[in-house]
Specification:
Blueprint lengths: L2 E6 L7 H16 L3 E6 L5 H12 L5 H25 L4 E4 L6 E3 L8 E4 L2 H8 L3 E5 L2 E4 L4 E3 L5 H11 L4 E6 L20 E3 H9 L7 H10 L3 E5 L7 E4 L12 E17 L4 H11 L7 E3 L7 E9 L3 H10 L1 H4 L3 E14 L9 H11 L6 E5 L2 E7 L3 H11 L5
Parallel strand pairs: 1-2, 1-9, 2-6, 3-6, 4-7, 9-11, 10-12
Antiparallel strand pairs: 4-5, 7-8, 11-12, 13-15, 13-16, 14-15, 16-18, 17-18
Helix pairs in contact: 1-3, 2-3, 5-7, 6-7, 11-12
């Protein structure tokens, strides 16, 4: 007998027939003698509609009330699924985040889970009930409902799996696993049987949308046995776990792309200590995440140029912030561009193999794709290129690294 956490995303619970199908899948686990905790998302489209409702009501809403509205999406699904399970003569009950409770901090809209009390759900499971938990939400220490950020049900599922020391955490979604790259762009993308936590973390943070990045970090920290698999097709998914020694490895495991990028260049910055601290400090104060950074070396002109990328959605705010400190910094020109895409290649093999960067840059050169900014980590190389070439870049890199075969 195992204790399992199963998570179903928005498309897996899109309507009542779909919810009934999921109930049958859960019954399958129960019939095998397993104890089951289920985490559900809102039905697809519901969270976006709820956000619309808030925006129609006011432009100056408090984030705490925004969270109360948003949390209702998952509440509906959890109760409908419990009812569908009762219909199959199973014992089930729904749990809102606050009823568990899943205790979070009070950063509304992107709250961080601090603690999960296991005794209430454990008691219910021991009486034979399946627990259906609303994903994406918690309760703060000042007794307000919080949400965990878009895609946050993944994080709820992994956090529960860690708290309950579950034997596995299965994330059911509308794709049948983690792919070498986005199959909608590269037809020859292949499903991976296995990927390491670190590689998945890089792919998710570089734009792969299959799992919320935070959920992967959490799975790595607590060594959660994590799988991504399809709600619709009965095929094996992708296992995400620690590196296994003697696995046959390609040079890279995957290619991610991110369209939500903006590039900012500040020209002719007087070259003196403290400039980077001023610029990036000011952006950090407004929670704007800076990603790639390049600074040209000043060859005795006494001035330098700084180029960096931020999420495109933060561009207006960043422009305001930087123009406010223009006097302090003394740069001559602010330019920004949104017609850029970041392409990243990720693979654990980069730690030990040389020549991977060379293959990447030569492949782009052969296709006449200009690289605007480069950044690297131990297991990742990212390049910023013009939007018009990103599909070509992804396809040619997929081929060059033998991921097509
Ligand atoms: N319903 C929330 C969202 O759309 C959380 C989730 O689906 O994971 O972001
Ligand atoms: Mg999701």
């Amino acid at each position: 007998m195992e204790l399992v956490v199963l998570k179903f995303g928005g498309t897996s619970v899109a309507d009542v027939p779909q919810i009934k199908k999921i109930a049958l899948k859960i019954k399958g686990e129960v019939d095998q003698g397993n104890k089951v905790i289920v985490v559900v998302s809102a039905m697809s489209g519901v969270t976006n509609n709820l956000i619309d409702l808030v925006n129609q009501t006011s432009k100056n809403f408090s984030l705490s009330e925004h969270d109360v509205v948003l949390s209702t999406g998952e509440q509906i699904t959890s109760a409908l699924l419990s009812i569908a399970l009762e219909e199959l003569s199973l014992k089930a009950r729904s749990w809102m985040g606050w009823q568990v409770p899943i205790v979070s901090d009070n950063t509304h809209g992107k709250a961080v889970i601090k603690d999960i009390k296991t005794s209430n759900i454990m008691g219910s499971i021991k009486k034979g009930y399946i627990a259906i938990v609303s994903g994406f939400q918690g309760i703060s220490e000042d007794n307000r409902i919080t949400t965990l950020g878009r895609g946050g049900s993944d994080t709820t599922a992994v956090a529960l799996a860690a708290a309950f020391s579950a034997d596995r955490c299965d994330i059911y979604t509308d794709v049948d696993g983690v792919y070498t790259t986005d199959p909608r762009i590269v037809k020859k993308a292949k499903k991976l049987d296995f990927i390491t936590y670190e590689e998945m973390l890089e792919l998710a943070s570089q734009g792969a949308k299959v799992l919320q990045t935070r959920s992967v970090a959490l799975a790595m920290k607590y060594n959660v046995n994590l799988r991504v698999l399809s709600s619709f097709a009965n095929v094996p998914g992708t296992l995400i776990a620690e590196e296994r020694g003697n696995m046959e490895k390609s040079e890279i495991s995957g290619i991610a792309h991110s369209l939500n990028e903006a590039k900012i260049t500040l020209s002719d910055i007087p070259d003196q200590p403290g400039q980077a601290a001023n610029i990036f400090g000011a952006l950090a104060d407004f929670s704007i995440n800076v990603d790639m950074i390049v600074q040209s070396s000043s060859i005795n002109h006494g001035s330098t140029d700084m180029t960096f990328t931020i999420p495109e959605t933060d561009l207006l705010m960043a422009e305001k912030v930087i123009k406010k400190i223009k006097g302090n910094i003394g740069f001559k020109k602010f330019t920004s561009e949104t017609n850029v895409v970041k392409i990243s290649i990720v693979g654990n093999a980069m730690r030990s193999q040389s020549g991977i960067a060379k293959t990447m840059f030569q492949t782009l050169a052969k296709n006449h794709i200009n690289i605007q900014v480069i950044s690297t980590s131990e297991i990742k190389i990212s390049v910023l290129i013009s939007s018009e070439y990103y599909e070509l870049a992804m396809r040619s890199l997929h081929l060059a690294f033998n991921l097509d075969k």
